[in-house]
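Entry 14. Ran structure prediction on the chain below.
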Amino acid sequence: MKKSFLEDVLGTVSRCFIVLSIVVLACIAFSGVRVVKSGEVAIVLRFGKIVGNTAEEQIHEPGLLFTFPYFIDEVVTVPTDNVIQQTVETHYTYGDIVDWKNSGYLITGDQNIALVSTSVKYTVSDPVAYALYINQADRMIDACVSNAMLETAAYTDVDDILTSGKEVYARSVIEEAQRKLTAAGTGITLQAIELTNVSMPEEVRYVYEQVNASTVEASTMIENAKQYSNTILPQAQSVANLTVQSAQSAYAYALSAATNELNEFWGVLEEYQATPDVVRARIYREKMAKALSSIGKVRVVTDDDSKIIISGE
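Output, structure tokens:
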């Protein structure tokens, strides 16, 4: 009976071992079946060497992927359709920079200090290079962008970084960082860079904020002056045009009146030269009639010397 019990135990152990072996072998066999998700591609490394001679053979699109078991083939998935965002705060310090050895900052071209943090967006443009040569993409990007920030700040004034030159500084940083990433063969393409925090050290921040506020106020005043100029100048020009037109009209009227009087004078002169007595008598009558019409009420009297006196009331 003891023998029978031992045989049963051995039989049970054997069956369990066989089942376990089958399960392990099945797991090993199916470990080569992978699912490549949408927005990703896969690269297969066989004993550390990439599988495939061309890019079409090396890059596997989303879907089922059949490879050898994991101890033979290694599958590296690479996100290609996603825009990845990463924050770089290497040169930004929260607080003051008294402990300068452990603080992040930039030295600008005019020998000032600026604190800058950035947000970078990038995509993977070369999956093969990314899979083979990049172990920690975030650290690689941080290093290249930080180095580009240092180099670009070295020939940029602090006022440009803090105010109007931010966009130019950011463009220069992304160009320089992309050049470094390309030279390193990372397969990464920077899409955008944003200066998320730009300021001065806490010790001098108040002074720079006051300077910036004054700069903004000056810009506002200049803009208001330009708007006022754009409003008042057309009005003044309109008044000037009306004044010139009125003067020209008055000039034309006066010239016409003077011309008419001159023509009339020359006509009378010709008549006078021909018949002076007649013209003199006519002019006398016309002038007297005009003068009497303007007097109003007329009274004719005589004095003791028989003289006629005309008095108006």
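DSSP finds eight helices and twelve strands in the chain. Will compare against last week's run tomorrow.
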